[in-house]
Design a protein that fits this description.
It contains one helix and 24 strands. It has 294 residues and is mainly beta.
């Protein structure tokens, strides 16, 4: 399927080595995202267009609202509570105690308020990672032997979850208890893109159950139906696109992060917008992101 030419714009020209984890906070009309390797949390207030960069002492990849004073951060050293006022971090819980060779990667809050968070080796070693469920301080391992966990997203009713190991490129679907976000059965393959160039990176669901996936290495955003049918493809200005998130008053626009990680000097010269944050209006409505329940 040929991709529709890019018809969006640059939301932030700040360049991230590994832009990831975009999250829209309805309560404050703010977009958050990370430069994982640059150890920075970025903040863009959409009305004022004021942008701030918050240096971090650790690599982090997921941010979630808790309340007006606190946020949850998933990092290479576990989950932390971030104080919005002064940026201080306090440990909430560890994911993989003593395993410093891993870091957090893709994750998302389930409508129940629980967190799904993936880990991976810092060198993307085969099978070094896993996906965990975190609720009320309890960490439950859901899936192991994962190399690059991505595409964690949920249907609006919380009854279906999705994830992918980008090294394998098969998007999985699993039935969930909507009250807890825990699986009620085994995962099965929904979409197999192992024969396509590039890799399935981050994803987000819309209210119709469609899955919007950033295609790493192909500069593309794909839309799949809840049944796994490839509905559309949209070109993006950077090859290494990483993750989408719905934002705006009507939740009908996607913010998409990107990266320049791994590009040679010549490749970076060709891919001059690599690492920027893009915006693309689509004919879909997103799901408001849930707050994490302590």
């Amino acid at each position: 399927m040929s991709a529709t030419p890019f018809a969006g714009h640059v939301l932030s020209s700040t360049v991230c080595e590994l832009g990831e984890g975009p999250s829209y906070e309805v309560e404050t009309d703010t977009l958050w995202w990370f430069d994982i390797l640059g150890r920075t949390l970025h903040e863009l207030h959409l009305v004022s267009r004021e942008q701030q960069a918050h240096p971090l002492p650790v690599m982090a990849s997921v941010v979630a609202r808790i309340d007006d004073e606190k946020q949850l951060l998933a990092t290479e050293s576990g989950l932390f509570i971030r104080n919005r006022m002064d940026g201080t971090l306090s440990l909430y819980c560890e994911l993989e105690p003593g395993r410093r060779s891993n870091r957090s990667n893709d994750g998302r809050i389930h409508p129940s308020g629980s967190l799904w968070i993936g880990t991976m080796g810092k060198g993307a070693e085969d099978g070094a990672g896993a996906i965990y469920h975190v609720a009320q301080g309890q960490v439950t391992k859901l899936f192991g032997d994962i190399s690059i966990p991505n595409s964690i997203c949920f249907s609006a009713d919380g009854r279906n979850g999705h994830f992918v190991d980008t090294r394998v490129n098969r998007l999985m679907r699993v039935a969930l208890d909507p009250a807890t976000g825990l699986p009620t059965g085994p995962a099965s393959v929904l979409i197999d893109t192992g024969n396509r160039p590039g890799g399935m990176d981050g994803s987000v669901c819309d209210t119709n159950g469609n899955i919007w996936n950033a295609r790493w290495g192909e500069g593309q955003l794909d839309c799949y139906s809840a049944d796994g049918v490839h509905l559309s493809a949209h070109a993006l200005p950077a090859k290494r696109t990483t993750c989408p998130a719905f934002f705006g008053p009507d939740l009908d626009t996607l913010a998409i992060t990107s990266a320049w990680e791994g590009l040679s000097a010549a490749e970076r010269k060709e891919d001059q917008q690599a690492g920027q944050l893009f915006s693309l209006a689509v004919e879909a409505r997103g799901i408001a992101e849930a707050a994490f329940r302590l």
